[in-house]
Amino acid sequence: MVGNTAEAEDLTQEAFLQLFRKIATFRGESAFSTWLHRLAVNVVLMKLRKKSGKETSLEQVTEPDEESGTPRRDFGALDLRLSGSLDRVNLQRAVGQLPPGYKAVFVLHDVQGYEHNEIAQMMSCSIGNSKSQLHKARMRLRDLLQETVRDKAREDRRAASAGEE
């Protein structure tokens, strides 16, 4: 399905991790092999959905364009990977500021991939409570991240006005 042996091995490992996490949800209404096959296919499909853009080798990027003789990419452009790293740092800070209940449900569901019924069982609460805590955690994270963006904008304006003086 993925056409790459290394990626297939990674996805196989991910499928077995999902199996370990979700084995309790197997109801026995079909053969175990059918259920496992569906789980593995779903892991691959989720990976293919998340895959962004095509991979490009470093040689292709740095070789000069045949027509103009200039490098194909503008190396002075904004580094989106760095921006992504900053976003991750801000997200980690925001998650760290969540109340313990919100944080636990958010991490279990959105980070570790547990279902609400599994979280409810682990935390000795109802499924509705798990869903509610997750919703509240996401709303609080949105607020915290927006505060970070507003603070950054204020800093940028201050720096710009200080530079004008």
Structure description:
This protein has 165 residues and is mainly alpha-helical. It folds into two domains: 48 residues, Rna Polymerase Sigma Factor, Chain: A (Orthogonal Bundle), CATH 1.10.1740.10; 86 residues, Winged helix-like DNA-binding domain superfamily/Winged helix DNA-binding domain (Arc Repressor Mutant, subunit A, Orthogonal Bundle). It is built from seven helices and no strands. It is flat.
Q: Top keywords for this entry?
A:
165 residues, mainly alpha, Rna Polymerase Sigma Factor, Chain: A, Arc Repressor Mutant, subunit A, 2 domains, 7 helices, flat
- In total, the number of strands is 0
- What integer value in Å does the Rg equal? 22 Å
Taking the sheet with the most strands, its summary is: none
Do you know the CATH architecture of the largest domain?
Orthogonal Bundle
Percent strand: under 5%
| Shape call | flat
- The CATH homologous superfamily of the largest domain corresponds to Winged helix-like DNA-binding domain superfamily/Winged helix DNA-binding domain
How do the helices and strands follow one another from N- to C-terminus? HHHHHHH
